[in-house]
Amino acid sequence: MLELRKDIFADERDDNLKEIGKPTQRQDMIGHVTGTTAYFDDHKLAGMLHLKVLRSPHHHARIRRIDTSEAERSGGVRRIIRGADVPRNLNTLLSLLNFGKDDEPSLATDKVRYKGEPIVAIVANTEREAFEALTKVRVDYEQLTPVFDVEEALKPGAPVVNETYPKNTFEYHGKYDHQRLRFGDVEQAFASADHVLEQRYQMSPIEHAPTETNGSIAAPEANNRFVVYTCAQGLFFSLDTTAKILDVPSNKLHFIGGTVGGGFGGKVDSLTEPLVTLAAMLTGRPVRYVLGREDEMQFGSPRGAERIYVKDAVMRDGRVTARQVRSYFDSGAYTRLSSYAVIKCAAHIPGPYTIPNVHADIYCVYTNRVPATAMRGFGVTAVDFAIECQMDKLAHLIGMDPMEFRILNAYRDGDMKAHRREAKNTALIECVQVAAEKAKWSIRDEYKRMSSRAGGGGARAAIPHTKLDSGLQAPARPAPQRTSYDRPLPPPVAPPPPAPPPAAPPANVQHGAARFSSVFGTRRR
Amino acid sequence: MKHRGKGMASINYPIGMNLGGDPSQALVHSNPSGKFTVALSAIDLGQGMKSVTRQIAAETLGVPVEDVYVDTADSDTGPHDMGSFASRGTHRVGNAVAVAAREARGVMMEAAAEELEVNASDLDTDGLGNIHVKGAPHRKISTKDVAIAAQFKQGKTIAGRGIFLVPLSEVDPETGEMSPATCYAHACLVAEVEVDDETGEVTMVRMDSAYELGRALNPRMVEQQLVGGAWMGVSHALYETPEPYYPEPIHGPRDYNEYVMPGPGDICPHNIAVLERPALDGPFGAKGPGEMCANPVLPAVANAVFNAVGVRIDDLPITPEKVLRALRQQGGAKPQQRR
Amino acid sequence: MKAPVQFKHNGSDVAVFVDGGASLLTALRDGVGDTSPKFGCGQGTCGVCTVLIDGEVHLACITLAETVAGRSVETADGLKSGPNLHPIQTAFMDNFAAQCGFCTPGMMMAAKALLDRNPSPTRADVIDAISGNICRCTGYEPIINAILAAAGSRQRA
Asked: Measured between CB atoms, does A128 come within 8 Å of chain C?
């Protein structure tokens, strides 16, 4: 089924390797076929308790009162956890990278912003007893008007979803509600184009739906530590998020995982680890919190929907001379990772093509739905759908073969990309040629002869005059790259009100933006 | 009546977390009998992290793959890794493993050189568990004997540490100038569909594709990703969503019966070609196929539907209802140019 | 109140105590300690808990534990005989028919039920047999190939 085209780019490779390139059997395959591969839930611990959460039935509501008195008396209940029990009940995942403001509670206290938002956690002897106790929790809601459409959410007067971002958009660079991409002059290109095509595309939300649902098991371990068996896609990401939310030193936590029953991006958010670890701390017992399938389907974070407007200028001879993109990421009620996806999307425009005028505005918008998260192709899948449907329409408009149209416009080594970096190591043309061959889709000889390594650079390497929104000219050269090592330090954050003196001062983060435990923690050996 | 159509899409995909700043570390060490452990905290979601890093370590060390075991993930013993997402695993973790394995190999060769009384530069591994003098294969020592000698006689530790980091890039607020990635994978896919103009159903007939991914470290595992990913792409294009009436949040599926995905009876043949243009900074030039394998399918299928019946569905998923409404509005199927 | 359940588990006599209403999946994973059948939905829609009861395919998550009293239950854990892999297991390995592996135990049991009653299945028979087992990773093609290969190898054996 798989054909290795060793003939292409052969002069750039040394194919005389011993192990690399071999179809070696997977290290984990024998475990998979004998049912002995150990996932997080395959750890059985004596005296394990079960945690389930009460979820908001409303899309948007104020919480007037939470009454857990009857639930506390329910059979088998060990502990009820509320927002006030969570040491730091406001977080955003990318705060670990100093990106964004804390905007999401682990357990809602005064407001719920999406249907399914966790409000109360119940820890009981059995799952059944936890579910029964949940039905006895009484919550008084005052329903609020929700907003579900990204463009509606941006209109003045729209309901405020998340008070941390009162205009329902993430704030970029301290001043803009979107990420910009500016390269050349699209307006001039539209004015002189043979055809201008403007279209709207809508990518739906997608649920990762791995066969293993999200979940984790936390338990007290020797030496006053806690072990957490997890399906997390980022072990330290999850550990550090948990340490932050529970306000404990990172080396108090021992995270074990690495073998996951499918992720696709849906197990990055640390949906269960903070609460289950807190439950283990509060009860002194092993606690298991696993999402049921219905919860996973509707309340496990999805790939966010995206609405994309693409406006292109094309010439009769096949050259796309301008691309203007306006895209709205539906982040749902909280930021999670969508803020990052917006920048990744901006970097991806206009696709693998050399287009001399590019303009993009990408937004991260809040609505009253389950917060979105990463999924396979994050930031790119939807915009590729839009761009490639658009390319097909343009080809049709000018009567050119779609394959040849791609080859003509493809980027080549040495071309300048819209984010002001040189294209290197390109291979789009060769992929198109080989796919055409395989599909018996005939293309003309001159297109079969084109190459990623020829015809690029030169005039195509220039950065065009670019007028910014302010009216000023953008620089004509790429900026010297500044890395995390020489970026100025973030401004100091005001410390919280004085509390009893801490046992030990927290590690002082100086280096760049990243703050991950193993950089400063200790290895036990 | 059923109409066939072909559509295509071509894409590229950035490798690693956008803007960089996503480090991975690895530790490699030998036990007393010359068997190696690679300690990571990287995550295997099924994409094969444990297997591909094992092969990279074996190749770099110059030992049989059976003599390498990848141990992950334990925060006590595995050094930091950012996580398995953004198609970063092979590139970032793979590079870290290669760095660590190179250091470990260096110590191993020095220890062997001392035992054989030659310079380390005169030696090579044979990939079968021995270290021998170049040009004189009979003058050799097993990696097991080297490990014993190193640890118990010479006082050397056959071990290595590795980290790989693409330094974090800035983003210009006005122009969007940034360094999103150091390398990109590429793909082109042709989808052939059959559209029933009475039911609106779209059936997959076949897919032909070409994926460029730097270096196919393990062709069988690459195949797993490309076949499985393209299946997911079909599912995105034609079937699945938790909000079928987006942006109205109604009638959301609650289980696999209601969350529609193609079953084993819905799949079609997929003929794949793999191209390799090594990334300048990938482990043996490898990039990462894990995400981009699904992306070209969505627009290729939409374009194929247009080719078959002349309607454009710009709203995913392409359900029978949407196809029928569009056909009705168009006044019936209008098949486009045959390919 | 816990109820005793005695049954044959992969050929061995076992006895466990279960809560009233407990599923066979819970009895196997927590009671017997056989974690090869997995929890994927608890609704009987994904198939990762597929086991054989008296040779027939059943979904352990929606089977009451007490209903298997006196019956024979087979799981993926029992496919091997001693150290030797079952032809289905070998075929799954050879055809790279698993990635995350979570659906694999259930998938193999569905395959076993098919091949035990129909040693020469067609591709359509195989598709029918695994249509109750969700796989999110492989795209099904390698799994279908593996089961056909296992049928072929059993024929040759």
From this structure: yes
Q: How far is it, in rounded angstroms, from Cα A201 to Cα B315?
A: 6
Q: What is the pTM of this model?
A: 0.94
Are residues A212 and A263 in contact, defined by beta-carbon separation less than 8 angstroms? no
Nearest CB to B223 within list A1, A379, A381: A1
Per-residue pLDDT tens for A253-296? 999 999 999 999 999 999 999 999 999 999 999 999 999 999 99
pLDDT value of residue A493 = 54
Domain ranges of chain A: 42-144+209-299, 179-206+302-403
Q: Judge whether A203 and A229 are in contact, CB under 8 Å.
A: no
Helix axes A273-283, A235-246, angle to 10 degrees: 50
Query: Measured between alpha carbons, how far is A383 from A363 in angstroms, rounded to an integer?
Result: 13
- What are C32's two structure tokens? 């017997």
In sequence order, which residues have a C-beta less than 8 Å from that of residue A507 and are 6 or more positions away?
A: A515, A520
Beta strands in A247-301 (DSSP E): 253-256, 287-290
Which region holds residue B62: left if phi is over 0, alpha if psi is between -120 and 50, else beta? left
For residue C9, the surrounding DSSP H or E stretch is: strand C2-9
Q: How far is B104 from chain A (nearest CA, A)?
A: 18
Can you say whether the dihedral through the CA atoms of C119, C124, C128, C130 is positive or negative?
positive
Type of residue numbered B197: D
Beta carbons of B12 and A352 less than 8 angstroms apart:
yes
Task: Quote the tokens at residue A352.
Answer: 């693998």
Q: For residue C68, give Cα distances in angstroms to A436, B5, C18, C48, C54.
A: 56, 52, 12, 19, 9
The secondary structure element, H or E, covering residue C117 is helix C104-117
pLDDT 10s digits, C95-108: 999 999 999 999 99
Spatial neighbors of A10 by CB under 8 A, at least 6 apart, are: none
Contact A33 C100 (CB under 8 A): no
Q: How long a stretch of residues is chain C?
A: 157
- Measured between alpha carbons, how far is B5 from B24 in angstroms, rounded to an integer? 45
ipTM computed for the complex: 0.97
What are the tokens at B76? Answer: 């006590």
B188·A294 Cβ contact <8 A: no
What CATH number belongs to A179-206+302-403? 3.30.365.10
- Mutation pick from B130, B177, B321 vs chain A, by most beta carbons of A within 10 Å, is B177
Written as six digits, the tokens of A514 are: 């990243």
Q: What DSSP letter does each residue of B316-331 carry, written as one string?
A: SS--HHHHHHHHHHHT
User: Do A341 and A328 touch, CB atoms closer than 8 A?
Assistant: no
Average pLDDT over residues B285-290: 95
Domains and CATH numbers, chain C: 2-76 (3.10.20.30), 87-156 (1.10.150.120)
User: What's the whole-number average pLDDT of chain B?
Assistant: 97
At C151, the amino acid letter reads: A
Residue with tokens 């196997």: C28
B216–A21 CB contact, under 8 Å: yes
Identify whether the C-beta of residue B298 lies closer than 8 Å to the C-beta of residue B240: no
Q: Is B325 left (phi over 0), alpha (psi -120 to 50) or beta?
A: alpha
* Beta carbons of C126 and C96 less than 8 angstroms apart: no
- Domains present along chain B, CATH in parentheses: 2-14+183-330 (3.30.365.10), 24-164 (3.30.365.10)
Do A22 and B55 lie within an 8 Å CB cutoff?
yes
For chain A, what is the total number of helices (H) and then of strands (E)?
A: 14, 16
The CATH code belonging to domain A42-144+209-299 is 3.90.1170.50
Q: Are residues B9 and A351 in contact, defined by beta-carbon separation less than 8 angstroms?
A: no
CB B49 within 8 A of CB B88: no
DSSP string, B119-149: -GGGEEE-SSSEEEETTEEEEEEEHHHHHHH
Position of tokens 């839009």?
A: A386
How much is the pLDDT for A521? 26
